[in-house]
Amino acid sequence: MPKLKMHHASPRIDMTPMVDLFTLLLTFFMLTTSFKPTEAVIVDTPNSISEKTAPDKNIMMIYISKDNKIYFNVDNGLDSTTHVRVKVLEEMGKQYGVTFTAKEKAEFEKLGSFGVPMKDMKSWIDAKDGVEREKYNTGIPCDTANNYKDNQLNKWVLYSRFHNQGIEAAVKGDGDAKYETAKIVFDILLENKLSRFNLTTNMEKVEIKLGDYKGK
Question: Coil, helix or strand for 30?
Answer without folding.
Answer: helix
